[in-house]
Design a protein that fits this description.
The complex is a heterodimer of chains A (about 250) and B (about 375). Chain A is built from six helices and 13 strands. Chain A has about 250 residues and is of the alpha/beta class. Chain B has about 375 residues and is α+β, with helices and mostly antiparallel strands. The chains are: A alpha/beta (about 250), B alpha+beta (about 375). Bound molecules: flavin-adenine dinucleotide (FAD).
Chain lengths: ~250, ~375
């Protein structure tokens, strides 16, 4: 069984993001990049699945040499092999999905894990698109997973509750916080990662289906207002909520 | 001169330990202090990640990261909790290190491997009531009896004494001070109640009694009568690692102090705008820069198997004095909040003080450094 996990290298959510001079991309100078947080759940689930059903794990990442840092982290956590689809282009969701689907096909992976979304562009679309392109089943925003032979039983997070879905392999799973606790890379893993080779491939050129026209920061938050510190402020608070912000 | 830079694996080690400390240690550091105990579960996790043997070669169950890796780890651990750093130091850098530096292959396989894997915990037993700075004056005795050594005596101030499975003990035989490996479940071994301390309260410090403790002949480490040299060599590593822990705590304090200074407003402006505060921050930063430079310069030399006795004495002296100054400034910058148990600053302030005392007081370090300077006629 081949288990693939797709991994993105994204700005740390703690870093301050500013829009670049071209108004179409973010200014990456001084920004630290990390493994996309949701992809950590995907890596962990790939490792747990391998521990249960056996097989081989491969991490696939699309991006430039910088992505190697995140790939190495996945290897240090215990993933067996790695592919870097090397490019400096910035692709939209469908293009990314096409390139990744191609590689997943080459790898012959039957179980594929994605984070439910990347925290950079936040489209939350690549996993499902990949499934469609590959003709695989797909369950998204998964918080519980059992794979038995060909059978897949997944719990999904939905508004106010949980939905239980059954399907079959091959499958694409997109992972949500709560599915598992990602392990730390162990010292053994770090040393082993050093010896593993990242297979670098140049992906076929793809043209984007969408065009980014411009990016801008959300308007600065209005400073808070204190209208009182005890019960006498309540009528005024209600008035403001009704008349000014119109939420009640 | 080459670039001052860490390898990729070293950076990965740091980021892994930092994640671990942020998630698993910082949230419970105050509890470790008030309950005066490092949870067993935390010790187990440290062992599973390989952190209790990070410095030792892989063939002995270690991480293969050498002294540089050890210093990186201790820096990060101390950012969260100096009690935990002390526990690790006594276990790895001195307790187990006696066996690594002085033991034969059989001893390493039998004792070092489970210690490096964190399956067992070590302690280092040198100090006695009458043998503190003057550790050469130790009175614990070992005498041969058939195929065994019989050990009698009392040790004092032994970090991990109450929780260790294996201890390295220095005792006097006919030929002089000799090192031994003692399993703590042997009859006649007992650890007394933990000392009540000012700081590093989570790290247990106990008196230990050896009452006719019998160990097999093969548990002697190195040659008979050569134990004191081994103890001093082991402390070279211990002092360096202590410097790394001081460095980590200092970095944490500078970050916390800077953040606070930029938030706290007085006289309609943040206190970071006052030159008095800025000067404290700059002094802290300068000390940290020097500490970091000397810790890793010395660690690299240690890994190259150079004799670093006087260098690690300098590291120990400078880093422990610097941390105390930095902790003091951190309290000052935080004002009343620096004195409050609500923030970790006062804990760092209490925890930092021990570093000028253990692993040889700073006066003793000055003695080591002075002997070297005099021998070299002042030419370093
Ligand atoms: C929390 C804690 C943990 C410890 N853990 C361990 C451990 O795991 N294993 C272990 O073996 N020991 C351990 N120790 C012992 C520690 O190493 C000793 O406390 C230390 O070496 C100082 O010895 P002392 O306390 O007897 O002080 P003393 O030697 O009595 O010193 C008192 C003062 O006199 C000064 N002084 C002494 N001799 C000289 C001199 N020649 N010139 C100038 N000044 C001098 C000292 O610097 C100090 O200021 C620990 C101690 C503490 C407090």
């Amino acid at each position: 069984m081949k288990i693939a996990v797709c991994l993105n290298h994204v700005p740390d959510t703690a870093s301050k993001i500013s829009v670049g001079q071209d108004n179409q991309s973010i200014d990456t100078s001084g920004v630290t990049f990390v493994v996309n947080p949701y992809d950590e759940f995907a890596v962990e689930e790939a490792l747990k699945t391998k521990e249960k059903v056996g097989g081989d794990t491969v991490v696939i990442s699309l991006g430039n040499d910088n992505n190697k840092e995140s790939i190495k982290k996945a290897l240090a956590m215990g993933v067996d092999n790695a592919v870097l689809l090397k490019t400096n282009e910035i692709y939209d969701s469908l293009s990314v999905a096409k390139i990744l689907a191609n590689e997943i096909k080459t790898q012959n992976a039957e179980i594929v894990f994605f984070g439910k979304q990347s925290v950079d562009y936040d489209n939350g679309a690549v996993g499902q698109m990949c499934a469609e392109l590959l003709g695989y089943n797909s369950v998204s925003v998964v918080v519980g997973l059992e794979i038995n032979g060909n059978k897949v039983r997944a719990e999904r997070e939905i508004e106010g509750g949980r939905e239980i879905v059954e399907t079959e392999l091959p499958v694409v799973i997109t992972t949500q916080k709560g599915l598992n606790e990602p392990r730390y890379a162990s010292l053994k893993g770090i040393m082993a990662a050093k010896k593993k080779i990242i297979d670098e491939k140049i992906p076929e050129n793809c043209s984007n289906y969408t065009e980014t026209i411009s990016m801008k920061k959300p308007p600065a938050k209005q400073p808070g207002r204190i209208i009182g510190t005890d019960a006498t402020a309540v009528p005024e608070l209600i008035r403001l909520l009704k008349e000014e912000v119109k939420v009640i | 001169m080459n670039e001052f830079a860490f390898t990729e694996e070293q950076n990965m080690l740091r980021s892994m330990v930092r994640d671990f400390v942020d998630n698993e240690i910082k949230p419970i550091a105050a509890k470790i202090d008030t309950e005066e105990k490092i949870p067993e579960n935390l010790i187990k996790k440290l062992g599973e990640l390989g952190l209790l043997g990070v410095s030792f070669p892989e063939e002995y169950g270690g991480g293969g990261f050498g002294e540089v890796g050890y210093c990186i780890m201790q820096e990060e651990i101390a950012r969260g909790c100096m009690s935990t750093a002390t526990f690790i130091g006594a276990h790895q850098s001195i307790g187990a290190n006696v066996i690594y530096l002085g033991g034969n292959e059989e001893q390493k396989q039998k004792y070092l491997v489970p210690l490096a894997k964190g399956e067992k915990i070590a302690a280092f037993c040198l100090t006695e009531a009458q043998a503190g700075s003057d550790s050469f004056n130790l009175k614990t005795r070992a005498h041969p009896d058939g195929d065994e050594w019989v050990i009698n005596g009392e040790k004092l101030w032994i970090t991990n004494g109450g929780i260790a499975d294996i201890v390295s003990v220095f005792a006097r035989t006919e030929k002089g001070i000799t090192a031994f490996i003692v399993e703590t479940d042997r009859p006649g071994f007992s650890a007394g109640p933990p000392e009540k301390k000012m700081g590093i309260k989570g790290s247990t410090t106990n008196p230990i009694t050896f009452d006719n403790v019998r160990i097999p002949k093969e548990n002697m480490v190195g040659q008979e009568g050569r134990g004191f040299i081994l103890a001093m060599k082991t402390l070279d590593a211990g002092r360096l690692g202590l410097g790394a822990a001081c460095l980590g705590a200092s970095k944490e304090l500078l970050e916390l102090s800077t953040r606070y200074a930029k938030q706290r407003k007085q006289f309609d402006t943040t206190i970071a705008n006052f030159q008095a505060i800025q000067f404290m921050l700059s002094e802290m930063a300068s000390l940290i820069y020097a500490m970091e430079s000397m810790v890793y310069r010395t660690a690299v030399d240690y890994d190259l198997k150079k004799d670093i006795s006087h260098q690690s004495a300098i590291v120990k002296l400078f880093c422990s004095e610097s941390l105390d100054k930095i902790a003091d400034y951190a309290v000052q910058i935080h004002g009343g909040m620096g004195y409050s148990r609500e923030l970790p600053i006062e804990r760092f302030y209490r925890d930092s003080r021990i570093n000028r005392i253990f692993e040889g007081t700073n006066e003793i370090q000055k003695g080591i450094i002075a002997r070297y300077v005099l021998k070299k006629n002042g030419k370093l």
